[in-house]
Amino acid sequence: MDDSGSAQDRAKSVLVVGGGVAGIAASVALADAGFRVLLLEKRPLLGGRASSFLDPIVGERVDECQHGTMRCCTNLADLLERLGVHHQIDYCDTLEFLEPNGRRSVLRGSPLPAPLHTLPSFLRFRALSLRDKLGIAHALLKIMRTNPRHAAWEQQSFASWLASVNQPPTAIRRFWRPILVSACNEELERISCAHAFFLFQTGFLAHPQAFHFGIPKVPLASLYTEPTLNTLRQRGGCVRTRTTVKRLEVEGNCVQEVVLADGERLRADWYVLAVQCDLLEHLLPKEVIESDPYWQRALQIPLAPILGAHFWFDRPIVCPKAVAVLDRRIEWIFHRSLNLGKDPKQGSCLSVVISASYSYEAVEKEHLKSLLLEELTACLPDVAEAQLVHWTLVRWPKATLSPVPGVEAMRPPQKSPLSNLVVAGEWTQTGWPSTMEGAARSGYLAARVICNQEGLPCALPVPDLPKMGLAKWLLR
């Protein structure tokens, strides 16, 4: 990109740094608005942490860490529609939970209006006692009548709130923790009430389909890489992978150009920085970072780790497409072979996830392999009889924003102090926790800033699902 030509005979140019979900969302929205977009990504595939890598042993794309979505993730769904791949998400109205003894409990929808749509299955939820269910119902009623945006809830941890409403230990262990640790990638002691209340209201109480769980039917990179390349190309844009940005040159209050690792320099009218917040200080001049609290607060945002592993076995393994695991080290097991539509007779690939994996960051790889295989064997009897063919481990030490009390004050708006630079990422102000939905929203919000500055209409981000049924009157 360069500055040749006049505003009259060319579209305004935008250079987007970072090809994760946030960068893709910003790029596609801006291209749809008529901007000339160049997207730069240092890795060979797009999607960021929600991406894949090519495993040389099995010769296929393997996800960095298994991700799922929900019907309440309206902006992610909109992005996938724009990319023409939303049909590659398999939604289900059932959430399965596996106890250590092998017994399963299920949450599923019913014809009852929201927020009662999961009530029949909740009453039959075998992993919880009657005392647990009564306690949970009491807490959910309080959550329904609470405004999660109130500043006080941002300062209190959800663990302390659960104690204040007398939640039984089993209810915490088998209901609140499995849902929130997976959604927030953090322990209950480090999740603010604001985040927890919002997730339950938006994901489970407001709309009868909001909790429907979606699993990709293709590797994550296939949701984003080729579809984004094609979408931007059709709109006059371009994607460059394997391209590392070294720094942004700033003069006065304006970004002048982007300098690549190989020395190439690129210029644009607008710049979108869609990278993780801890990378800001490596890309922007020191004097820019020190000149404004906007950048200093962003660099203080705490980040939480996540761990994923994939295991290939030589035979079919009986396992649901996705199951939440109770009272174990791992949170989820995904039957990757089923999800991708592969013949189980060819063997099985199982993916496991440990959220907020602080205690496993220093564990040696082979020891971790033994621990995870022990978990799988305890959960799924077929694993004990199977031969392990291959396995791979993925660690993200700084995977997501940690939703600790007080973190919202650190999250910056997308419009930065530099006049032609906006930022995007799930760590920015999105109104959502650190999720793929939050990333998509941030990209759309960044695009809206640029459109507004250029006097163009922008109807983004997409609204949340509406409150339905009784939830229209019961939820604050």
Looking at this protein, list some descriptive labels.
22% strand; globular; disordered N terminus; 476 residues; alpha/beta; 20 strands; five-stranded parallel sheet
Mean pLDDT: 94
User: Helix coverage percent of residues?
Assistant: 25-40%
Rg (CA only):
23 Å
What composes the largest sheet?
7 strands, mixed
The total count of strands amounts to 20
Bin the strand percentage: 15-25%
Number of helices: 17
Distance between the termini: 48 Å
Poorly predicted residue ranges: 1-9
Widest sheet, order of strands: 8-7-16-17-18-15-19
Instruction: Based on Cα principal axes, name the global outline.
Output: globular
Query: Which structural class do the helices and strands define?
Result: alpha/beta
What does this structure look like?
The chain is an alpha/beta fold and 476 residues long. Helix content is 33%, strand content 22%. The strands form 5 sheets. Strands 8-7-16-17-18-15-19 form a 7-stranded mixed β-sheet. The longest helix is centred in the C-terminal third of the chain and has 18 residues, at 436-453. The protein starts with 12 loop residues before the first strand and ends with a helix.
